[in-house]
């Protein structure tokens, strides 16, 4: 192909993607609405895309920019002298490293456990799976969605290597009682990690206007590490996160070296070895362009937008806000008049993406909304679309799974299924066609209604089966 043909194909394959700018995508992307920042970020990505963070002696510019980003975050998160950190590829890698570091810091514990609220991000489950750490889940308050500090304390024992709190939690946007949780962890001699991937670049600015907001940073003595994503409310391109430790001694087990082969000595601060310098440079450039005053203004814009959104939803029939959101995330639930998953489909048909969340424990199915600065000026448009979507959902009536299928799913053991059984279930869920070929449904409400009546373990198995099938390449040999 010539370059123009490639560009046309790039445009074509992207046609069905969600928009990354304009404030209409309320999950996955975070948009400052600042065109100059976006342009500068793209320039930095291109200029440093071929550099490699593997070896700081080869690309000292990246080392310098990483040090600057960590220093900026340490100042923002009240890090004491000696605070250190690393740039990672995203929140998941930061949380993986937090768990790995805590595990490796305790070689005396043969069966390490991780104490976490049930609302903590699923990446902690991934970390536990990868690193042989058993997650100990503690129920959150069913009314507020916040972790219960006393219950967290009761779950800590001699095998606990890490205790987790969220600022805020992703499902409901509420900040856990970090001070109480970290105090219990410190008394037990256990590390405490605060997952501030969402709020780490937002809450500190909001606390300047409202010092009564709960503390979550290194101001809390028992907090030993914090994760914060720059590609969320730092408004930088994907993917840049930071993992900060209170001291170099606490970070030491995170670092890896191997000279046990005839090649170069592998030396890493993170899970990755090769790391493109593009996202690092883009984050460095954008944080300097926006600056402290700019982030304060963006944080206030998000806070005011969230407040107006919550007030507007609470004044409407049929919808309610789950919990009391603390920063920028909100979860919406419905009454029995309609199906919340249908609202998501209807909003998407009107150009707005919100993220369906399935029921879990005492919490009903909800719609997750991440409010970014670019969304706030368009909230009146969104509320009009929401009203129309709710009206359409009420007219359509509830979307429910077949009662017979729900009974089968409740009793089914996913470990007993072969490929043929999975294909049959995926077809019943609307995720593959009759030949077993994966399909992307145009409306997800029936799929989500089916998944919602399945136990979490079966949800995982069904979606893993779907992911396995949809991620297989279609090659000429496969076409016959």
Given helix and strand content, the structural type is: alpha/beta
SSE order, one letter for each helix or strand: HHHEHEHEHEHEHEEHEEHEEHEEHHHHHH
State the separation between the terminal residues, measured CA to CA.
25 Å
- Major sheet characteristics: 7 strands, mixed
Strand content: 5-15%
User: What is the domain tally?
Assistant: 3
Which CATH class of the largest domain? Alpha Beta
Instruction: Choose one word for the global shape.
Output: globular
Strand order of the largest sheet: 1-7-6-5-4-2-3
Number of strands: 13
Q: Which whole number gives the mean pLDDT? A: 93
Number of helices: 17
Low-confidence stretches: none
CATH homologous superfamily designation of the largest domain: Type I PLP-dependent aspartate aminotransferase-like (Major domain)
How much is the radius of gyration in Å?
23 Å
Here the CATH topology of the largest domain equals Aspartate Aminotransferase, domain 2
The helical percent reads 40-55%
CATH architecture of the largest domain: 3-Layer(aba) Sandwich
InterPro entries: GrpII_AminoAcid_Decarb, PyrdxlP-dep_de-COase, PyrdxlP-dep_Trfase, PyrdxlP-dep_Trfase_major, PyrdxlP-dep_Trfase_small
Family: Belongs to the group II decarboxylase family. Sphingosine-1-phosphate lyase subfamily.
Keywords: Lyase, Pyridoxal phosphate
GO biological process, one term: carboxylic acid metabolic process
